[in-house]
Each structure stands twice: as structure tokens, then as C-alpha cells.
Amino acid sequence: MLGELTPAQRRQAILVIVVAALGYFVDIYDLLLFSMVRNASLTALGVPPDQLLGKGLTLLNMQMGGMLVGGVLWGVLGDKKGRLSVLFGSIVLYSLANLLNGMATTVGQYAILRLVAGIGLAGELGAGITLVAEVMPKASRGWGTSIVAAVGILGAVAGYFVASLTDWRHAYFIGGGLGLLLLLLRLGVVESGLFVRVAATHPRRGDFLMLFNDAGRFLRYLRVIAIGLPLWYLVGILITLSPEFGRAFGFSEPPNAGRAVALCYTGLAIGDLASGMVSQVLRSRRKAVLLFLLAQLAGVALYFTVGTLGLQQFYACCFGLGLAGGYWAMFVTIGSEQFGTNIRATVTTTVPNMVRGAVVPMTLAFTWLKGQGLGLPQAALAIGALVFGPALWGLAGLEETFHKDLDYTEHT
After folding, report:
1. Quick one: which of 142, 159, 149 has its CA closest to 128?
2. Residue 329 carries which DSSP code?
3. DSSP 124
4. Which ranges of 338-375 would DSSP assign to H, the alpha helix?
5. Which end of the chain is more exposed for a tag (fewer CB within 10 A), N or C?
6. Nearest-angstrom CA–CA distance, 299 and 218
7. Is the confidence at residue 19, as pLDDT, over 90?
8. Mean pLDDT value of segment 221-226
9. Which tens digits make up the pLDDT trace of 264-289?
10. Model pLDDT for residues 66-119, shown as the tens digit of each residue
11. Residue 152 contacts residue 32 (beta carbons within 8 Å)
């Protein structure tokens, strides 16, 4: 996988992959922890049972809105000041925010801290994937980014066990502490050589407006975002709201949200490795993503049919949805490969956070449809119909980037 590199380059590439993977592990732990402790934490803060869903969606939207803002801020910083600045700055911010989350005493404090945590969480994946993509040989980039995502996504599984064995406040303390410990490992990572060369010769870096001042570039950006929308439809609605869906399906015992998240993310971890393998075998990013998109459609159909039969079938569908959604790393890698070095971090960081931020209009539309008389499953299916079409459209119009050389810049 790293045979084209010198021994020194190989050691650095391995360190970058390890650091990016562990950083994403802590990122996912903290990102999904709220979904796991949502009801327990809000109940402890005095929220009545009939307001848990509404308050929970509000806090989720605060977190995702923060990620939308943070995606732009960290992405621009990554192209202006370097990938390492984001790896250090983002983890400090979200680690401190999560430590403070464990001290929240009101829903208002909780909401503000989820916003701040969301801003911090927005930088981790984009900076890590950008750095890995730029230090790996082009023929094996997919393996590196898939390993990062597969290891990172297991943070959700760790979060489930921590949330199951400890109080919700301690779960936040553990997440914040893990993030601060990770800073020590990052001290040995050096900056991307591609960035260093561009920084010395290209004055216009990290210009977010470049994504909008050229029609072809803007369309390319929209297409990349579109292919990721189904992933957070699955996580943000079908998995996060699993207790409510269980009740709508008539289960005597509602699903445990933490278990549903852990099963889904176990599937995602396996799927991310599988999608990397499939793309390497097919030598195509686009074909691999298409296969996983079609598998996701099948998974949603099973969720609303087989998943309604009982709790164990429901949990099996949560795992299956995760397995089919395991192209997150491939999706972010495609975004990184579609754009030049002078705005690569901006794109790679903003694209996944635009998708995460899309959870806000998804949940608002979902709530509105429920208010119009649609049942919970029908409202969710309607939102699903709105995300899969754009994803297929986006994939159809993107160039294949499997063999693409990343040593280039975007013209102004």
C-alpha cells in the first residue's frame, strides 16, 4: 500500500493515518454521544416526557448548525494556515466544550455548549482526510482514508458502552479527556508537502468564495454534497429517533437509542472498509458509491417493513443501514480529490459538514410533515424520497478520481 514511498515518508504516512483515525474516533464519540444520552440528560435537566422529542431535536439542530459554521471556518483555516492548525485547534475546542457539557445545569447551557462543540467537531474529519490524501500514493489513497473512517466510526460503539456504564455527565467528561490526551500524539505529525509548496507560491488559498464564482466549480461542489445526504438522513432521523419509531411500530419495549447508534456505526465501520476495498478492486470511486447508494435504498425499505416486526429485527435493520451507508470515507475522499490544493481543505471540511448541517432542514421538514397529519413513518419516507434523488444526480455528474494526481491548484 505504501511501497512507492521512502522509509521516512512511509513512517510519516502511517503516523498521519493513526493520528487521523484516532482523532476521528474521538470526534465520532463526541458527535454521537448526544444521541445516546439525549433522553437521560434532558430528563435529568427537568424536561417533561412530552417535550423530550422537541427539545432533543432543537439541541441536535444546535449541534449540527454549529458544524455547518465550523466547517467553513476550519476549512478556510486549513488552506490558509495549514492542515495541522485545524487538527490541533478543532480538538481543543470540542474537547473543552464536551467537558463543560458534563457540567450543564440548564437546557439553555446545554444548547449553547452543543453549538460550540459542533463548531469544534466540524474540523476533525476534513483536516484528517485532506492530510491523508496528500501524503498517500494516489493508487492507495482509498485504503488510507477508509482506515481512518473505519477506526473513527468505532467511536460510536465506544460511546454506547461508556454511556451504558456511566452517568451521562461522566460520559461527556471521558470524551473531553480523550480529546485532550490525543493532542500529545499529534506533536509528531508534520505538514503536508503539497500544502507547503502551494503556500510558498499561491497567495489565494482558502477562498471560500471561489466555490461560487465559477459555475462549473459550484456545480461540482453541489454534486459532492448531494451524494452524502442519504447518510445523515439515516443517522439523523432513522437512527437518532429510533425510540420514537419503535413506539410508532407498536413495540411494547421501545428501542434503546444508544444500542441502535452502536449497531449502525458498527455496520458503518465495516462498510467503510468494504467500500474502500470495492473501490480498489473496481478502480473506481463512482462505481463503489453507486453500489452502496443502491444498498441504502434497499436498507430503508427493510427498515419500514422487516424492521416493524419486532425489536430484534429492528436492531438488525439498524446494523444493515450502517453497513449500506459505509461510503462516508469514500464520499469525503471524492470531495478532496475533486478540487485543487489551494481550496482542498476548504472543500474537504465543508462538504461533510454541509451534509451534517442538512439534518437541520431535514428535521424541520420532518416535524412539519408530522404536523400536517402524516404519521412518523410516512413523514420519514417523504424526507427519504427528497434525499436519494439528488444523491444519484450528484454521482452521475462527477468525474472519476481514482487515478487523479492531486498536485494542482484551482484557477481564480
Report:
1. 149
2. H
3. H
4. 344-357, 359-371
5. C
6. 31
7. no
8. 96
9. 988 988 998 899 889 989 999 999 99
10. 988 998 999 899 888 888 888 888 989 999 999 999 999 999 999 999 999 999
11. no
Lookup: cell for 390: 439528488
Secondary-structure breakdown of the chain: helix, strand, coil percentages, each rounded to the nearest 5: 80, 0, 20
Q: Please tell me the pTM assigned to this model.
A: 0.83
CA distance 309 to 323: 20
Contact assessment for residue 399 and residue 338, using Cβ atoms and an 8 Å cutoff: yes
Amino acid at 384: G
* Sign (positive or negative) of CA dihedral 276, 281, 284, 288: negative
pLDDT (0 to 100) of residue 99: 94
Q: How far apart are CA 359 and CA 114, in angstroms?
A: 15
Residue 48 neighbours by CB distance under 10 Å:
9
Which single residue is written with the C-alpha cell 429492528?
314
Name the helix (H) or strand (E) containing 66.
Answer: helix 52-80
What is the set of domains in the chain, with CATH numbers?
7-396 (1.20.1250.20)
* Predicted confidence band of residue 1 (pLDDT cuts 50, 70, 90): low
Torsion sign over Cα 85, 87, 92, 98: positive
- Taking a C-beta distance cutoff of 8 angstroms, is the pair 363, 57 a contact? yes
For residue 146, the model assigns a pLDDT of 82
